[in-house]
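Model: You mentioned two targets. I'll fold them one after the other.
Researcher: Yes, keep them separate.
Model: Target one:
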Amino acid sequence: MTASATPEKHVMLVAGETSGDALGAELMVALRELSNVPLRFSGVGGPAMERQGFTSIFPMTDIAVMGPREIIPRLPLIFRRIWQTVRHAADEKPDLAVVIDSPEFTHMVAKRMARRAPGIPVVNYVLPSVWAWRQGRARAMRRYIRRVLALLPFEPRFLEKAGVDCVYVGHPAIERLPEEGSGARFRVARGIAPETPLLLVLPGSRLNEVKHLVEIFGETVQKLAIEMPELRVVVPTVPHVRELVEKAVKEWGVPVDLVEGEEGKRAAFDAATAALAASGTVTLELALARVPMVVAYRAEAVVGWFALSILKIPSVVLVNLILDRPSVQEYLQSRCTADNLFEGLRPLMRDTPERLRALADLDEVRARMGVGGESPSTRAARAVLDLLTD
């Protein structure tokens, strides 16, 4: 008599855009490596997941849209895709579902799954920024999310108060650290001596934010160059804002290197003395690369006032939220002036007590984020398998 084959487990994955597709692919690889039983996958995904043998029930491009101009004309199709995804879950009855990022789509799916197929536990991979804007939404998630896989170490604490099960797995930026020695090679390739102060300037990746910050950042650079004539500047940029940035930096009167692409950006991070950055995820990437920074944000007066008035957190800088104390200087709206940014940057560009404190704080961030430990995808897979094998 032969032993029966181990029954497979069915995991449904739902990703709505490129970043979620990448996370989904990495999760599939880690789940297969760690699982003691065969796994079958179905749901919605893109090219990265398809390279892992995944077949999407419809093209992910149908729902990977951004902004009202793109979304409104496609609402009928998006709602059809939501119901198609829910019907797939109800018909296929997976053992577990993981909805990945893209909360405007994936949470609508999860809510309807909870009503139509309540027996399927749903895991949310990448928490929406409910801790910043819509804290009541966290409590509502209890009705349709079984577990959250958090990218940031303070998120489990926040969700615990809302009664939501949450496991910290780590941010994918942990796996995008600069290659050792890349900074030294970057400097050599551009004729920048090891002791030359090198400032990273990151005015953003969206046209609007670049327009609001690039002139102020230029004035800041000019002030710094008066005090440090040997100053060199590097500006990582992306194709759709490069023309605007290229035109602006010609007026700065200092040597500026523009770099594109992930590899060039990471090497520049490794080479930098300090950074002047627009608020956003890039500040976390800088922290993990141990680059002391000053952070700025500026928008139209009404938009900026509204955004800051509904903010529910003491800082827009992830480093400060992770440490639960003000470490990185941030200059928002009316405080975002060249004089203020210059004063914030000055002590970070030399060997000063302020710079040493900043580096110690960034080392603490790296420790709290789990740099050097298991990869985020492996931690995420463990948290999923924990529920799958309950």
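Model: Target two:
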Amino acid sequence: MQSVTLDADGVRAAVSMREAIDAVRRGFVDLAAGEFEMPTRTVMRDGQFLVMNAHHRATSTAIIKTLSVNFDRTPAIAGTVVWAETGRTDTLIADAGAVTTLRTGAAVGVATDLLAPADAGRLTLIGAGGQAADQVRAVHAVRPLRELTVVNTDPRRAAALLETLAPELDGVRTRTAADPEAAVADADIVCCATPATSPLFTAAALPARVHVNAIGAFRPTMRELPDELLADSAVFIDEREAILQESGEILHALKAGALAEHDLTELGTALTAADVPRGSRTVFKSVGVAMQDWAVARLLAEKFLGDRLP
């Protein structure tokens, strides 16, 4: 029996953002094809404790992720992702914080690659917490950035994020801002990565052509996007059942009549469609699903357990 344990640095060293994006893209396609057994996650204490699991039928592999979330500490996410296979006793245990931020960024990379304008190069990121860096890395991997604006209520935190990312953003013009309304006005892509409970900006503040990713709100009590934006956009989601249970902005828009359930397109379905319906504005709303964790864990298993899965 082989058992491998990876801390956050080990996960980061082993998996690049480009690898994660490709793996999560394949995962979304398999999810749309019904290849996953994936219950909606167990939520305790209004999202402070989460348990997620997914079984990939084609490979007889599975993951279980347990974590706690506390935005008042660093890192905000703590826990483990455990990889298991039918017929093998080998296991892999990986840091949940690193896997979660990497796979969330990768999902945004998949959506941005599919939905953002081909010439998009100006990103406004709202939020400078633990998810923020991988949001930038993912967008930059699929739409090389010319400009990056980081919006945060604490300008020192935004500046620290830009300093961390500087070696990866050679030639990119960067700035910090405090006002989301002004900062999104000339963006091609907007990423929202905050624990907000009310919309971060108005729909009118956005340009006519823009792609918006929203990953921060993962409970019905949380909300980053206004109803008017969702009503005026082609809206893509990670997984319907999870979104209808957990996405505050989608639930609010449905209740207000700004959206109908048939307006929501799962990303996996869009990836395999011959033609993807888009308007001038597109939105990707994610609450995060266990398939994404499985996709990154699969990469780790291939590297550290010697797996060669179909």
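Researcher: Noted. Anything on target two?
Model: The chain has two domains: 3-100+291-304, 117-288.
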